[in-house]
Amino acid sequence: MNPSARYDCIVIGAGHNGLTCAATLAGAGRRVLVLEALSQVGGAALTRDFLPGFRVSACAHLLHQMPADLIRDLKLDQHGLAWSARDLPTTAVAAGGAPSAADAAAHAAYLERMRRFAKALVPLFSKVPPRLGTADWSDRLALLGLGWQLRKLGRRDMRELLRIGGMNVYDLLEEQFESDTLKGALGFDAVLGTNFGPRSPGTVLTLLYRLAAQAAAGSGSMAQPTGGLGALCEAMAKAALAAGAEIRTGAPVAHILVEGDRAVGVRLESGETVAGAAVLSSADPKSTFLKLLGTRYLDTGFVRRVRHLRARGLAAKLHLALDRLPVFSGIDAAALKGRLLIAPSLEYLERAFNHAKYGEFSAAPALEITLPTVNDPALAPAGKHVLSAIVQYAPYDLKAGWPAERERFTALCVDTLERAAPGLRASILGTELLTPVDIEREFRTEGGHWHQGELAFDQFFMVRPVPGAAQHRTPLPGLYLCGAGCHPGGGVIGTAGRNAARQVLAVGVA
Amino acid sequence: MSAGLAAQAPHYRQPLLHTPFHARARALCQVESFIPWAGYSTIDVFTTMEQEYFAIRNATTLYDLTPMVKYRIEGADALAFLNRLVTRDVGKLKVDRVAYSVWCNDAGHLIDDGTIFRFSEQDYRLCTAERQIDWLLDSAIGFEVAIEEITAEVAALAVQGPTSCAVLRSAGLAGIETLKPFEIGRFTLAGHAVTASRTGFTGDLGYELWMSPDAALDCWDALMAAGQTRGIRAIGSQALNLARLEAGFIAPNVDFVSAEHTIRTGRDRSPLELGLSWLVDFEKGHFNGRRALLEERARGVRRQLVGLDIAGNKPAHNALLYAAADGKREIGNITSAAWSPTCKRNIALAMVDAPHFAIGSTVWAEIYLNRELVWERRMSRAVVVERPFFAPNRRRATPPGEF
First and final CA of chain A: distance in angstroms? Predict the structure, then answer.
């Protein structure tokens, strides 16, 4: 390899984590190259056409977990980031009556308490997880700090947090609320993007985790960048470029190159090789270790753990091009700016999940709906609209196979929407359904799981994605993980990318 | 499943299987001494352990090692797979040669030891003490390799002892005398094709014969007939165990416990601790446990398995070891011990803490003697010595001498 072409750091993947990582490294004076397989940056946070003139954020479609200081540090506003809307409301559609007065009071108390818990979990959320059983003082301090945060909650709150921490969200909400509508809407956030139903163990943890991510982000409110999430990533790319990084799109990596038990660069699918002192992969852990690196550079026990990483997507993405703005029964126009949920009760969610357990899609799916064109009309031709919905549950390994069932599931989703918004069907100009298999193919994420691995107790924090790779370092010197497969996981956060960059800078490999 | 295995009674009727040699071995076993081995009923002692042991060192012995677990490993990546699996460089193993090696988990702790047979560029056999198809299949992820257990498909007979070459030649294995240590050859015995390897667990001149189960009884009979004038004798596991200790070979679950089976922390053993550094090739590229072993090498081993020469003639079975005769500071324990009839030495294998494992160090063994139900305790001086304890030239000589 030509030493003059040698980079300090090669980042695989130009999603928001890869770009954050690259911008941070370049900002610290490292010579950085970002390699992106697709022809545009963004990864699972990209925005693209799905019908001529109709643009959609093809995977994630809302921003609510990216830390404010990350946006500030990367000076994304100077690089073109603008907001179409912030503080977006969440509204339950296709639901029963309004919650009772008792529920309204309970809801306020619940939100307040969960917010306190989430705040206590923020330090856990934002940092590189400590390792257990080391003599390293930073690890011990991090553990102590976590304990202190919990203790600081006070006796009553700490007890409550420890009580609910291992519960399922169904039981938690059942003991606090009366209204099915409210419980369904609150429960939905606990299972969104996961392999869980509301009665699955650990769903309070996933909910707390989501809230902690929002708390760590600062405001935690839902926001919509102008131009979609892709525009956010384009701003990140500009920040990385401004800091001196190079970005090459349409340059898929075929292999991570190893010499003398060190990652020394990558070979592209074109055959070209690029040398780098450190390789940081924002690809999912399974792809990174099993495909790009190859098992022969890893120990069997580690390969076993990577293989057993649960990373099968259960959420599909539905995109509709609409001739006009839909009218949802009983919902005022202001709600259309925000997020609409079709999850009328916890039973509805649990029943939807039952099918997925047995390799079928939900007969009555739950949906998180956004109409991005309400806030950002430029995403569609004048007067037209885009509907973007996350649909659960649509298992990756559908028994009948997606080619056979795609049409039936799309029709089912449209039926569900039609019931909530009569007349919507007649306004459809075009449809795109991305099943987890499609998400796997388009975004090169094995299993099509948008967290690059289930967020569950055994796969998070200091064991995420797997023991032996949970602090961005991997068993192979010079190879690092910087994507959603790392702590703190998926959602458009950027923390994994930033922490990985800091880890590389601290270790001083490059 | 092979025909041989399927023909036997179901496992709930007969929990231990019979090997293809069972009919003959059973008839010769005078003391009803059976032990289970890897799912088979095998013979511990035929007549007396001593008689069988001396046959190993003075004549020829037949030992049924069919229960040894055998895997066929085949495919374009078979070599790459094996090199990632074991600590030795299998690339240096030529076709029709055998190599002894060990393999480790991620932490560099021993999973098992065994032998690798290379039959062609892409066709290998791995012989192991324990079944471990799960570890092998998980190790095969990402390699183009097919792994299959063939234990029941291959009958195996060890023919060991100073007259073994002569016996095999008399039995019709023309050219067996040219077979070098760890070499594989193909022969005909009693009209059956057999594969012979010059390998064994006795540290003596000897061979291992590999054949179809259908050929087992004919081969046994032909060898017994050919060996009549050279003192041939069937032996059980007890006699073999004494011979292997003299040869300095380690035995699984005796001198080490597989890292796949240990429960308590600190009970796993690395090849460096077992004195098998010579099997670990750090230069060949990555293999399971390499990074952990490099760290261990840099740090220095905390303990090591060594040979001991102990004063007196009482075997130091399970004895604790001390730094001084006062028995105050414990520094290890004996894993295998015996009075060696051939060396006329009281020998043992022992796990000894640093720095007492250096060759020439003196340690003290606490030996308990039961004298007509009265226990006596004896502190015996022991010296750390080189292994093997017994290594006759005939073991390596090619062609071996006539007896």
Answer: 17
* B interface with A, Cβ–Cβ below 8 Å: 80, 84-85, 105-106, 135, 138-139, 141-143, 286, 288-291
pLDDT tens digits along A444-456: 999 999 899 998 8
- Residues B300-333, buried b or exposed e (16+ Cβ, 10 A)? ebebbbbbbbbbeebbbeebbbbbeeeeeeebbb
Which ranges in chain B are annotated with CATH 2.40.30.110? 302-385
Enter the ipTM. 0.93
| Six token digits for residue B176 | 């067996």
The structural domains of chain A, ordered by start, are: 3-45+66-81+228-309+455-507 (3.50.50.60), 107-217 (no CATH)
**What's the pLDDT tens digit per position in B180-218?**
999 999 999 999 999 999 999 999 999 999 999 999 999
Chain B residues whose CB is inside 8 A of the A295 CB are 84, 141-143
pTM here is 0.94
Class of domain B3-66+154-235: alpha beta
Q: Which residue has the tokens 């796990």?
A: B351
Other Cβ atoms within 10 Å of A189 Cβ, number = 20
In CATH, what number does B302-385 get?
2.40.30.110
Query: Predicted confidence band at A94 (pLDDT cuts at 50, 70, 90)?
Result: low
Q: Quote the CA–CA distance of A455 and A489 in Å, as a whole number.
A: 7
Which residue spans of chain B are classified as CATH 3.30.1360.120?
A: 3-66+154-235
Residues 6+ apart with CB under 8 A from B326: none
Check residue A128 and give its pLDDT.
85
The answer to whether A61 touches A44, Cβ cutoff 8 Å, is no
Q: Choose among B80, B143, B289: nearest Cβ to A299.
A: B289
Name every chain A residue with its beta carbon within 8 A of the beta carbon of B288: 299-301
